[in-house]
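Class, look over these structure tokens:
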Amino acid sequence: MHAPATSTPDPLPAAPDDGPPGLAAWLAVLSVGIGAFALVTAEFLPVGLLPQMAADLHVTEGLAGLLVTVPGIVAAISALAVTVGVGRADRRHVLWGLMGVMVISNLLVTFATSFWPILLGRSLLGIGVGGFWSIGVAIGPRLVPLRYTTRATALIFGGVSIGTVAGVPAGALIGELFGWRTAFGIAAGIGVLVLAIQVFLLPPLPPTRATKARDLPLLLKNAKARVGLAATVLMFVGQFAAYTYITPFLVQVSAMSVRTVSVLLLAYGAAGFLGNIVGGWAAERSARGALIGTGLVVGLATVALPLFGQNAIAATVLVMVWGLGFGAMPISLQNWMFRAAPDGMETGGALFVATAQVALASGAGVGGLAVDHLGVPSAMLVGGAFALATAAVGWHFGRERNRTTLHAVH
């Protein structure tokens, strides 16, 4: 049977809603969350190691920046390609394969002696990242009963928050003490450990139907999914238009030292971890409310920075509030997509990841244009405007329209 034009196939049914999940189920979800931590850490490792890597490989820092941007581009493509390409493969086997790609990627970076093989290794990581976010995030809701799916998704995104808080600074510290290759070698070792844990904990996860290429545009016929993708574009453009230039802002406008900024960004990440928990709680109660709230928190905090950021205390408070919103952002958007199309979680996840990766890169460019023409504070205003537009989209277009062809968003 073919699915109706307004829905998507059901490749990933949720676990039966027959009571609270047991310890084995939560440990399986945790193993996926640890995988998220490992991938996020590996993806952003070069951020803190770029000067060392550029000097050692005898390339400019601008060229070395490809080690960050290329994986993002590959991830956007892979999110769609992997979802379609894995067909009827058991999803736990797919996840194992993606973690294996992550290990190979980091080993290549660790032992390669020139720039281009290292860039190849980083490109392989993009396959792992894109594939994980389309396949892996959709696995969480399969492991627990329906009413616990938001908590499972929040636990997986908790791995992202921890990777953001601890992974990048830890990689930079290891690189400073023992060299940048050691940091990537340790990342490969963590990947091996995560793979072993997932082999032990993940149950069989066969799909009921393979996702086809034609299913991807089919989701765009779902009005709620279109709202979610529009919100994803606005939120990610806004977040990274501002966040890309947060360090120059705090140094130039708030007159903070580089060391103080580093500590504040760690606190930002810690606030993001708390925001992930709060966002999961809010999304479980109202997908629309969580989406609007996230846009308001990020938007108001960033817009207020140019107004009050000359005061270091005010800037610190606003950055912490921003961190809360940042932590709630992925779970709010992903939960919206899941609820908009609960019978197409892999398809929704793939489109979400591809859209987010493109918007992330675009956001940095939009912020850069603002900085070049209007100064560093303008990046905060532009980013905040996009985030507030997200809230407006959720408010105006997120209401139920009583159409039987759409799934409810609560």
